């Protein structure tokens, strides 16, 4: 907390100077560079591995002996680390003399600020409890420099020449710093800041178990416990408790430390330096009263009720509180050492706090006891709602705009600028979240209390808050001008002030144009306009035009209300007339303002955003040239900056939705980018290659859809800063294709522009031909969405090219393709034949419709009835609740719907005055039953999504995954217990445990790092492992500096680095990177996010590659649990994971368990995808290989025949995979004949010899264990690695893409003589002869001599085959989601 306190000082100081405003930002990566003492290994299992991160692990080399060329490429990977890369900082050692006189060393960069150094020292175990000190820098020439917090080291001395040292010199405490010191001490004694990942725990347990085995006398474990995956897949509700990680067990260091009731010090004691008194009770039971002075902490002589400030007889004192407690209590000293060791043993990332951690929809059940905690109570006494209690409040707008004005010509300058912007934006979002809670809880007074409540505006902590209202806005806005004070001129500026803050309410007048809009449409319009404004603001931020500014913005949904938070426009609250409107219109186009200087800046941004410069006519027949939507507002603030606000329609209106109620149905920016690139690509192809006309027609949709993700991937803003996996998946597919024509098409792409004001009520200027051409342009892109993008998206879903797991990933996939969620009804109709996709779309429509009803209830209900109202709603939704008076309740609900506008208006006016007309009593909601609720949901789905919800939807909604999705969308937390959805009322009031805000924001992402990742993907696809490693490492380094490690983009870099290291043969390094990705995903996306599930799956496959199968199976079990919660058990990804588990058991020789999983996977795929889907073929093939390993060659042949039949039907006879399958069939047939012949020849003798051996082994079980262990180690791990090779794990078609790239890598590497690892089509003697007897026992047959060699051969070939047959073509044994079309396309192009 001391660090936080220092940051707060910096934040306030930042307002007085532009330079200083970077400093809070510079803190952002402070926790990242962990000093050497803290840098713990990734996890317990990898202790031996840490030294080989940068080179191939010895174990990995035994498993996969690389060819000489490969070693060379690996050494290149290592050598790349020694050269500074773009964005990578060079570090220099600087010794530090600590306050206690000890010595330590820090690795620093000349660009580090003194604030960074303070943060490094806070993270180091030796100095973590020193908070009040000054830093002296002694240079080589003997000079001593006093370091100010806002200095960079390079401004004071040159540390690159060496010989520099730092000294920590104790400073005097003051009231603020001593409180920060006590706060920091409490934090250090708690483990609540340590977020340990289950993967770390599993690895440490495995390591401990291994160490125990190594102790002489212990018997090694002979058996790997079987997973209960199949069990909890059948009982997903019952497995809810398993999701929640048990909290770190607290290590008690002291009974309590509280502020004494002697505080504040009396005046005579203040004069001699007393600042604070603390009461401490140690674990030994001794009570002490401690005095904190400006210099030290000491035990005073107080006892009873009178203060005795004299030092106690012991005379103990220390410069820090923890130093004093160590002297007072031996138990404290021991426990504190344990706490520090526990924190040091954790992964460094587990100690880092994340921005906006994801909402947890599950809480422990039973609810843990709420225990007394004086420290917690003291913190809760002051209600600040995010503002600073002491000192000046932060000027968010000035900080943000100052950061934007930083120079950004060199890479290092861009990193500093991005870091500053990210830090300020993140802090703003955090403050906006807290402020919005205060606004909705009515704890913050409005600045216009005489206006109707739905038009109230609030300013708190220099943030402007307003409601996105759902009332009859026309009536209310008519009342508004009468409240304005002063002349008409003033009222016009007043109007500007409303728009600036209300964002949605700001469009009050605009909404007047459609009087026929119903209440639901009003609500939708205001919600949509807030979303659109956020997207528009983000687009202009990314365009980054010099001299054109936007406000910081966030949208908070809480308790049924939507609040828009914006930074305050300079001068707007002071009534300063210098903020006059210069551009756009405040009165719905009646009067339009225009300014040449402003227009030039807007035009520059318009070129980047594909907005056309066009003419608009106002009510006075004046014609203006605009390059933005008419209702935007261009204002010059009192700081003389040009601000552009109200950007609801930066993209044109969707021509497929033209009714008055659809005025905010605009196209997505991704679609615009996609369309422009497709058009440009088509033009360039037409010019250069007229003979490829047919190809052009088939390709633009996919190329452009993918290209859109390269450009403005705006999903982050909408879904809590999240970028999408599918987005990147599809991007990578076309990178090579689009690169070839990108240079030619970029010019023509920029020329395509759209008029955002067509299909609106505004009067357009220019001749009719021009207007018609503009309208035609918008119609063209709208039909492109319906005719090309949607069918392509549906096709990708059906081929598993895009494989969303839950509502969030489905939304992200839609957005990444440029499809609005309002088209989800069409998507649902397109995937009716695939049960998992039909259920997913159906449930998403149902949940989105139910969400609006639930928000109405939350908005209208009294605070003390929230738990009961929410549980009743869930009972009506998931159960079958029947009200006593059905007719009466139906009438009351319809009456409520009909008069909703009136009731809400009354509600918001009456909140502070009796509230009778506003708030609803709980009894009125208790009359609603399941039938009424579901009829409401069906009506809403029809109105919003044009989709008739079938009666079946009530049944499909009875799932944990639906409950999870609904809770996440509304912010509800429920108890983690088993819910019986077949009951009438599955939920009780006590099950509703929390209600949290849901936030959307526009925190910027680092474009530099995104570009590097894209370049790395291209290199990976080319087979250039070392080059791709360099790009991904640079991106990782830049993101670490800009965002810190807790960010989704950092997780993506770790995933790619793991992949590259794996292919370079460094399995251990791959596991370390994968572990990082897993920790970040758990913290940033949530414990049960599909990406987290896939991270566990990848970890399992890597561990299996190192022959740590027990650990692999534990991780795989966790992956299956998470998949079951997010998607339910019926999903192709679950089936694919079952195949992976089967492979692991197969390699362990547990054929019966492997067969169970394979058969379960086959059932799932046949049910979900159909008996003739390629995924089903993959299952048949895997079963054929399993039967082959058991010697059941007849069954192998039968299953392979089914595989072959499916492949012939889907791919044709000529496809390489079909031919491979035919070869397998011949092999199995031949083995069957050989076995039969052998049986006839030597059956009797063989049987006798075998029986003797079996009897011998049965008599000596320890021999069996020895043979099993020998078999496990002797078996070539190349077999295991084949699972990881081309069958690289993937998430929702994302890692699958990399796997294809890996397959390409192998082909190209083979051509260069760089084969990374053997891929066998050649029979291999994989198992040592020793294991043949064990094999006989397991299978119970006697024909082992033939079987054993074939067993290993089958595995190598099978995994090669299944990776080619499943992975590259669709979903192989080691992956999740796939598709064939793009690969076929690539192959055709390669041939051309």
UniProtKB/TrEMBL annotation:
One of its GO terms (molecular function) is RNA binding. GO terms for cellular component: cytoplasm. Pfam families: CLU (PF13236), CLU_N (PF15044), eIF3_p135 (PF12807), GSKIP_dom (PF05303), TPR_12 (PF13424). It comes from the Eukaryota. GO terms for biological process: mitochondrion organization. Keywords: Cytoplasm, RNA-binding, TPR repeat. Residues 1344-1367 have a biased composition (Basic and acidic residues). It is found in: Cytoplasm. TPR repeats lie at residues 1135-1168. Residues 368-658 form the Clu domain. Residues 1-90, 478-512, 716-748, 1320-1392 are annotated as: Disordered. The keyword RNA-binding applies. Residues 14-25, 75-85, 482-495, 1331-1343 have a biased composition (Polar residues). InterPro entries: CLU-central, CLU_dom, CLU_N, CLU_prot, GSKIP_dom, GSKIP_dom_sf, TPR-like_helical_dom_sf, TPR_rpt. Residues 1-12 have a biased composition (Basic residues). PANTHER family: CLUSTERED MITOCHONDRIA PROTEIN HOMOLOG, EUKARYOTIC TRANSLATION INITIATION FACTOR 3 SUBUNIT EIF-3. Belongs to the CLU family. mRNA-binding protein involved in proper cytoplasmic distribution of mitochondria. This is Clustered mitochondria protein homolog. It comes from Cardamine amara subsp. amara. The lineage of its organism: Eukaryota, Viridiplantae, Streptophyta, Embryophyta, Tracheophyta.
């Amino acid at each position: 907390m001391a660090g936080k306190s220092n940051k707060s000082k910096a934040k306030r100081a930042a307002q007085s100077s532009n330079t200083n405003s970077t400093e809070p930002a510079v803190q952002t990566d402070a926790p990242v560079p962990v000093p050497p003492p803290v840098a713990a290994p990734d996890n317990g299992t990898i202790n031996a591995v840490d030294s080989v991160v940068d080179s191939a692990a010895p174990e990995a080399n035994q498993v996969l002996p690389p060819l000489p060329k490969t070693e060379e490429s690996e050494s290149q990977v290592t050598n790349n680390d020694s050269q500074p890369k773009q964005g990578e900082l060079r570090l220099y050692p600087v010794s530090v003399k600590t306050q206690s006189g000890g010595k330590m060393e820090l690795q620093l960069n000349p660009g580090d600020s003194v604030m960074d150094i303070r943060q490094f020292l806070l993270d180091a175990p030796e100095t973590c409890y020193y908070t009040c000190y000054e830093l002296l820098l002694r240079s080589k020439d003997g000079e001593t420099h006093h370091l100010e917090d806002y200095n960079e080291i390079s401004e004071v001395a040159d540390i690159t020449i060496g010989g520099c040292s730092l000294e920590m010199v104790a400073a005097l405490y003051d009231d603020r710093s001593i409180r920060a010191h006590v706060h920091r001490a409490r934090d250090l004694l708690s483990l609540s800041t340590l977020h340990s990942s289950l993967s770390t725990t599993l690895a440490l347990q495995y390591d401990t178990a291994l160490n125990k085995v190594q102790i002489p006398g212990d018997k090694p474990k002979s058996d790997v416990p079987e997973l209960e995956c199949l069990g909890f897949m059948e009982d997903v509700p019952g497995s809810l408790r398993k999701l929640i990680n048990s909290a770190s067990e607290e290590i008690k260091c002291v009974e309590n430390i509280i502020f004494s009731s002697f505080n504040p010090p009396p005046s005579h004691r203040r004069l001699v330096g007393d600042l604070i008194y603390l009461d401490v009770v140690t674990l030994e039971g001794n009570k002490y009263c401690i005095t904190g002075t400006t210099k030290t902490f000491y035990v005073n002589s107080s006892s009873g009720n009178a203060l005795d400030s004299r030092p106690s007889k012991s005379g103990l004192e220390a410069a820090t509180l923890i130093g004093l407690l160590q002297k007072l209590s031996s138990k404290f000293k021991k426990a504190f050492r344990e706490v520090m060791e526990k924190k040091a043993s954790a992964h460094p990332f587990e100690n880092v706090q994340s921005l906006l951690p994801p909402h947890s929809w599950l809480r422990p059940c039973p609810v843990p006891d709420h225990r007394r905690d004086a420290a917690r109570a003291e913190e809760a006494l002051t209600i600040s709602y995010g503002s600073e209690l002491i000192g000046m409040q932060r000027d968010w707008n000035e900080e943000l705009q100052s950061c934007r004005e930083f120079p950004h010509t060199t890479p290092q300058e861009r990193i500093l600028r991005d870091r500053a912007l990210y830090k300020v934006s993140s802090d703003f979002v955090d403050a906006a979240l807290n402020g919005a809670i205060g606004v909705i809880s009515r704890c913050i007074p409005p600045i216009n209390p005489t206006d109707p409540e739905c038009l109230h505006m609030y300013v708190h902590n220099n943030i402007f808050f307003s409601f996105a209202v759902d009332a009859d806005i026309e009536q209310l806005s008519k009342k508004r001008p009468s409240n304005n004070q002063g002349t008409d001129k003033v009222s016009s500026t007043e109007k500007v002030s409303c728009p600036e803050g209300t964002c949605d309410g700001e469009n009050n007048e605009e909404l007047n144009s459609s009087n026929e809009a119903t209440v639901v449409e009003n609500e939708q319009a205001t919600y949509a306009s807030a979303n659109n404004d956020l997207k528009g603001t983000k687009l202009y931020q990314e365009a980054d035009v010099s001299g054109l500014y936007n406000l910081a913005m966030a949208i908070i949904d809480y308790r049924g209300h939507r609040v828009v938070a914006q930074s305050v426009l300079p001068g707007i609250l002071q009534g300063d007339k210098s903020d006059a409107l210069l551009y756009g219109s405040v009165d719905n186009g009646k009067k339009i303002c225009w300014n040449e200087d402003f227009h030039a800046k807007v035009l520059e941004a318009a070129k980047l955003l594909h907005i056309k410069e066009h003419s608009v006519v106002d009510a006075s027949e004046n014609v203006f040239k605009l390059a933005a939507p008419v209702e935007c507002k261009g204002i010059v603030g009192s700081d003389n900056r040009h601000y552009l606000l109200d950007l609801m329609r930066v993209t044109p209106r969707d021509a497929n939705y033209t009714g008055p109620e659809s005025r905010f149905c605009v196209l997505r920016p991704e679609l615009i980018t996609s369309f422009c690139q497709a058009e440009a690509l088509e033009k360039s192809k037409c010019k250069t290659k007229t003979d490829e006309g047919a190809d052009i027609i088939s390709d633009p949709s996919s190329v452009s859809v993918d290209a859109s993700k390269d450009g403005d991937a705006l999903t982050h803003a909408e879904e809590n800063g999240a970028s999408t996996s599918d987005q990147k998946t599809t991007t990578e597919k076309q990178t090579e294709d689009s690169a070839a024509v990108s240079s030619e098409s970029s010019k023509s792409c920029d020329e395509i522009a759209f008029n955002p004001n067509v299909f609106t009520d505004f009067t357009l200027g220019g001749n009719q031909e021009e207007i018609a051409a503009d309208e035609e342009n918008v119609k063209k892109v709208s039909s492109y969405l319906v005719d090309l993008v949607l069918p392509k998206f549906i096709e990708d879903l059906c081929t598993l090219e895009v494989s969303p797991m839950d509502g969030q990933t489905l939304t992200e996939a839609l957005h990444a393709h440029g499809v609005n969620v309002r088209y989800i009804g069409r998507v649902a109709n397109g995937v009716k034949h695939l049960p998992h996709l039909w259920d997913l779309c159906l449930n998403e429509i149902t949940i989105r419709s139910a969400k609006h009803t639930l928000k109405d209830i939350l908005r209208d209900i009294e605070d003390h009835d929230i738990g009961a109202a929410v549980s009743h709603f869930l009972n009506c939704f998931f159960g079958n609740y029947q009200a006593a008076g059905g007719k009466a309740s139906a009438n009351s609900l319809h009456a409520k719907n009909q008069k909703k506008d009136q009731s809400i208006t009354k509600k918001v006016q009456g909140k502070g005055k009796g509230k009778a007309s506003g708030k609803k009593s709980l009894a009125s909601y208790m009359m609603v039953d399941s039938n009424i609720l579901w009829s409401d949901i069906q009506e809403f789905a029809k109105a919003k999504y044009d989709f008739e919800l079938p009666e079946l939807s009530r049944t499909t909604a009875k799932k944990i995954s639906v409950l999870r999705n609904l809770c996440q969308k509304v912010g509800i937390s429920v108890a983690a217990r088993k819910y019986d959805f077949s009951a009438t009322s599955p939920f009780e009031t006590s099950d509703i445990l929390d209600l949290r805000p849901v936030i959307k924001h526009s925190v910027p992402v680092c474009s530099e790092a995104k570009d590097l990742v894209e370049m790395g993907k291209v290199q990976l696809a080319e087979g250039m492992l070392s080059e791709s490693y360099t790009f991904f490492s640079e991106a990782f380094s830049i993101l670490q500096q800009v965002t810190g490690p807790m960010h989704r983009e950092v997780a993506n870099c770790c995933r790619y680095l793991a992949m590259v290291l794996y292919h370079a043969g460094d399995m251990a390094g791959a596991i370390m990177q994968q572990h990082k990705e897993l920790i970040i995903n758990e913290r940033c996306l949530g414990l049960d996010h599909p990406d987290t599930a896939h991270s566990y799956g990848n970890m399992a496959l890597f561990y299996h590659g190192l022959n740590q199968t027990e650990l692999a199976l534990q991780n795989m079990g966790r992956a299956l649990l998470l998949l079951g919660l997010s998607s339910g058990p019926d999903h192709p990804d679950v089936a694919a994971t079952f195949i992976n588990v089967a492979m692991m058991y197969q390699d362990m020789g547990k054929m019966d368990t492997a067969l169970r999983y394979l058969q379960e996977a086959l059932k799932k795929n046949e049910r979900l995808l159909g008996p003739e889907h390629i995924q089903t073929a993959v299952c048949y093939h895997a079963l054929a290989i399993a039967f082959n390993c058991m010697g059941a060659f007849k069954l192998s042949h039968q299953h392979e025949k089914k595989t072959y039949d499916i492949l012939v039907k889907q791919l044709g006879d000529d496809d390489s995979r079909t031919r491979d399958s035919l070869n397998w069939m011949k092999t199995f047939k031949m083995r069957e004949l050989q076995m039969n012949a052998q049986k006839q020849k030597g059956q009797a003798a063989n049987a006798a010899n075998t029986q003797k051996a079996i009897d011998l082994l049965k008599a000596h079980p320890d021999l069996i264990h020895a043979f099993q262990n020998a078999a496990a180690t002797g078996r070539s791990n190349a077999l295991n690695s084949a699972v990881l090779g081309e069958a690289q794990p993937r998430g929702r078609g994302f890692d699958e893409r990399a796997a294809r790239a890996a397959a390409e890598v192998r082909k190209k590497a083979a051509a260069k003589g760089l084969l990374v690892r053997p891929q066998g089509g050649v029979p291999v003697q994989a198992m040592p002869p020793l294991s043949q007897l064990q094999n006989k026992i397991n299978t119970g047959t006697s024909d082992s001599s033939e079987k054993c060699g074939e067993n290993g051969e089958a595995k190598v070939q099978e995994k090669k085959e299944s990776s080619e047959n499943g992975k590259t073509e669709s979903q192989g044994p080691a992956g999740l989601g796939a598709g064939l079309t793009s690969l076929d396309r690539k192959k055709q192009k390669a041939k051309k």
